[in-house]
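Morning run. Coffee first, then this:
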Amino acid sequence: MSTSPDMQSAARVFFSSRTFAVAGASSDTAKFGHKIFAWYLNHNLAAIPLNPTCSTVTVRRKEYETVPSPSKLSDPKHTSLSVITPPPVTAQLLREAKQAGVKAVWLQPGSFTDKELDYAIKEFPGAAVGGFAEGTRGGEGWCVLVDGDAAMSGAGREEKL
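And here it is:
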C-alpha cells in the first residue's frame, strides 16, 4: 500500500482551503457521498457538491447546485477536493483537478487503488490525503468522517457545530 511521508501535514494543507468540493456527493442518505458532503456542511465549511449526473444534491431538505467537474469550479486554486468515487472515476477526477489547479485532494476509502494514490501523492505534493499512512484513527484508512475533526484542528480551523 502506498504511503505519504506525512499525511497529517497533508491533511492540514487540505483544510487550509477556503472551499471544499465533494466529488461523488449524493442525495442518497445511505451513500458515503451524502455523508461526507453533509459532514462539511455540519462543520460550517463552504462545500460544493461535484456530480456530473445530477443538477442538485439535497441534504437536510436543502438543495445545493452541483458542479459537473473540477474544471468548472469557480476558484480551484483555493479549493480542496474530497473524492468519493470508484477508482477509474477518481483517476480522471485527479487529472482534471490537477489541470484546473485544485490545491489539495483527500481520497476517501474505496475511492482509489495504489495507482490513484501514487498519482495524487506525486501530483499534489504535500497536499494529498489517503491510504493507511500513520495518523489515521480508523481501520478503513484516512477518512474525513473519522480523521476530519483532528485534521481541521491541526489546520487551526475552529469547529463550528
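The radius of gyration is 14 Å. Good start to the day.
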